[in-house]
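Lecture notes, structural biology module. Today: joint structure prediction for complexes of two components.
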Amino acid sequence: MKIIIIGNGISGITAARYIRKLSDHEITVISSESAHHYSRPALMYMYMGHMRYVDTKPYEDHFWTKNRISLLQDHVTEIDYQQKTLSTKGLNAPMPYDKLIIAVGSMPNKFGWPGQDLKGVGGFYSLQDLEQIEAYSKGLKRAVVVGGGLIGIELAEMYHSRHIPVTMIVRESSYWENVLPAEESAMITRHIQSRGIDLRLGVNLGEIIDDGSGTACAVTVKETGERIDCGYVGLTAGVRPNVDWLKSSDLHIEKGIVVNHHLETSIPDVYAIGDCAQITEPVSGRRAIEAVWYTGRMMGQTVAKNICGVTTAYDPGIWFNSAKFIDIEYQVYGDVPTNPVDGISSIYWEHPDGEQSVRILYRSDTQVVTGFNLMGIRFRHEVCEKWLRDQATIEAVMSRLELAHFDPEFYQRHYEDIMAVYRQQTGSSITAKPSRGLNRVLQFLKA
Amino acid sequence: MSQVYKSLSIANPDTLSWSPLQKLTSAIGIAGLTILIAATFGVTFPNATAWLIASLGLMTVGVVSFSYVTYLQQPAGIKNNNIWHDRISSRGISAWVAGVAITAFYIVLYQYPQVLGLGSDGAANTGLVALFDPLSQWIKGVPASQWFVYGTLYTLAIIIFGIRYIWKYRHNKYQVLRTISVMFFQTGFAFLIPELMEGLNKSTYNKWFDKDMKNMWPLDYDFFFDWHWEGMISNGSIGLFMLILGIAMIFFISPLLTYLYGKRWYCSWVCGCGGLAETAGDPFRQLSDKSLKAWKIERWVIHLVLVFVTIMTIAVLYTQMGNNPEQYWLTRDMFAIGISILLLGVIGLVYYLKDKHPDLQQDAGKIIMGVLAVIVAILLINYFIGSGNAFFIDAYSLRSAYGFYIGAIFSGIIGVGFYPLMGSRVWCRYGCPMAGLLGLQQKFFSRFRITTNGGQCISCGNCSTYCEMGIDVRSYAQKGQNIVRASCVGCGVCAAVCPRGVLRLENGSDDIYEKTLDIRVDGVRLSE
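The predicted structure, tokenised, for the full assembly:
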């Protein structure tokens, strides 16, 4: 059987690797972006000089030959679902497939801003975007970043690393407040400002101004009309599925390519995974499109099983995610609502330095823990997941919180302080049970 | 597309330029270094004390103030910006100059000390060595040797670049404590205590022995040589103490600590070679080769050095035993039988562990058992035919070959000279027999491992890039697998640079034989 995968990001590559693990099928991965799979989250580190391109490739180049995964750097132009072939820019004849996996990812949002297609304006998603950002960085006096999400702050940090002044235009009144609870959002807002980044909150992009040669030279702020001169405008107001090029076909597309829980599209033998897929009936509490690395990887694994005859429903498990906001690491496990929710209690501890915090959420009636939100502190994924899966109560979690400790050795431990917040807030007289050391963690996880 | 690779590679045309303050402070350091270079090339300084103070002082002020403006004026956090844009840390032109210069220094140090100004046959020192005479006179009352010069500069490098490292990683307590530890052991144990002891007891010059309490066989490969043995035995209680400690380190202290904490207790907390690599070598840690090929070469080379030092030491001891039968209670008979039993014991241990440890069922176990069996066989054959040699070869030529090829060329010239080109741990990774021995213990019999945090890895590659030992940490982390590698020195930088908090250095005895088996299926938990 011949399987073609369009896209060599984490979803497509995970699918290819698992199909190889499970079968002897012929596998071809097509990408116009790069010859080999690289880690997209590492794009920023290339610009910042932490790594070279070669360092961002998770597998050495000989891996693909050894595992008989053919790589083709080419651009797919058309898919003929009846004939089961696809055409590319580089190939003369259509290429036949038995199963097709579409894993083409996202593209940056553009909201019809005047000047959004000028030169010197771009998103930050691909190697090509990075190449353009690099090209415009020479002698750059100021960059403007539009959007206050995970990519916006990455781009701001990148410019900051090269001492290029940067202005962030953020619609919300506090950084990422549509995802983070208020205290955490305020913490990151302070952190961004403390680094000297010009953070404009509660404002929108008015227009991008043409310097007369078709290149951006400034932006205006919609609310105030203020003009900000700049040599580059980064558009980082979120992403949407990269499906425009497929829309004229029979493939059922809404926001993304619609797939069932086996990741099958409306057309037989065609699957869609990763950022570009829209799940028809997501499991409760989850969104139909989740453009994150981890779910892409899970979908890749699931689709491989389905193609290789192990019928598997896509189950993303308990939500987790992580990021790093300049110097503050962020981890989340389970449900962490943005605003206070009736019936959900929240224990929030923040370090006096204002750069570390722990938030634990639980149901007020059953006392069952529902989520963890961490800033500047590392918690052990397996432990948090087990607590959430086993529906542990807040008392059980609080008394053994140190089991989740994942900060490096000799770091200060704050579990007593966190517990003090809990005692004060609930009147509980709970005390800690011995929970230190890897052996206790292993015993807990194996129990 | 190719433009992206080029502009972000070591050939980046837009290499970073340093700030005026960085340029000024590095110029101060280079001025101090220039005094040493001038002295080496024959410039005679009228007042050696003043010039020596000026030189060491300027280098200290230069490095410390450079580190101050580079790190301490920045907020705490990971400071890897522009490393691949900077010529010195990305194999640019200044890296090559530094590499060639350090290599040349080591060649002269080991092979042509007279070039540095060492006076031979009682003649007074000149040049660089003479510049250090006042310090040597002050500390131990005799003129300097090339080794005193080297020891002083080595210790100074660990101290001043240690300060740089502490400031760079000041948000990370593990890194800070570890660096204070290597600075302490180098300054106290490797430099001050031995030098002061020699000053207090000048009689030891004739029968010298190593007074560095943290140095041990097989890194200290001449520990069992006759002259060193003589030195320890003929120097009263201090010599005897060093002898007993040396033996205890090899057979008890070191295996116990490696069992408890992994080889990091030595390699990145105590060792002098490791100390220099972690401090002065830190700007070069990203240059280590992470390819599978490099790993294959590493495994062969380091273990062959370990076999070499073992054979050499047994041969030397065996030969020495015959020389003074009435002086030592240990006879050649006892030694040949004893060492055979010891090695057979190791074979037995490997055989016992092989059912528990999957790696030992493959090549590793067979090779270890095979090599040890051959050593025992040859030793016994020579013993029974009454030969004075343990392995058909003259022990003296074995030991001089080891001293030259491994002791001088590998550990010094290549080990440090190649820092700016191959990374800071070339010697530790490919050559050090101590690291090889501790590595085997770490891999098969230690509580230490690096654990991976569930499914949080994003395969970015920071961990692998900044692994000075060239371990492809990411290949384990993205699978959700623990990292248990013989070569890991536990520096903790992979865990520090991880932007998602995925890695942690840990010790635990609960799953000691299955600590790598817990794979989270690519970091993903899927329900069937």
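Point to remember: The first strand of chain A starts at residue 2 and ends at 6.
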